[in-house]
Amino acid sequence: MCSEFTFRDTSDLRRANMRAIKSRRNKTTEKRLRAHIVASGVSGWRMHSSELSGCPDFFFYRARVAVFVDGCFWHGCPRCGHVPKTNRSYWLKKLKRNRQRDERIGIALKLKGIRVLRIWECDLRSQPLSCLKRILKLLESTLGVRKVASRPRIST
What is the pLDDT of residues 21-58, one digit of tens each? Predict the structure, then answer.
């Protein structure tokens, strides 16, 4: 009986822990990139555009570019993502479904003429300016202009 209680208690703790993980407006992901985009002077974008498949974290209307910031755990980063040891088979299936959903969303957006850029949370944490440059380069190539914004006025 004691081990049953412990299992249920652990399960309740795990559930509470997983619920506490935010999927949006996360300081280490979207807020960080938002600050860099604002500081770079780029305009014409919107966060969490619900009218598009997958509700991209950033959508640049004129350029028709959707940017997703993928959390390393939830989207299975090949470098730093991991599978919890508890209930491993569940998590393997769950993470696989998440990656498949990401792929389906990317295809759906591309069929609508929208270019998709995915940025890993760990890349944003370790090299934010590189992530911003990837976005600016895609915007510049899509809009066919030399420069979308002035040089980024931000530091790491």
Answer: 555 555 567 888 999 999 999 999 999 988 998 999 99
Count how many domains the chain has: 1
- Average pLDDT of the chain? 82
Structural domain range at position 47 = 23-143
Residue 95 in domain: yes
Is 136 inside a domain boundary? yes
Full DSSP string of 27-92: TTTHHHHHHHHHHHT--SEEES-TTSTT--SEEETTTTEEEEEE-HHHHT-TTT----STTHHHHH
- Is this structure's pTM higher than 0.70? yes
CATH number at residue 123: 3.40.960.10
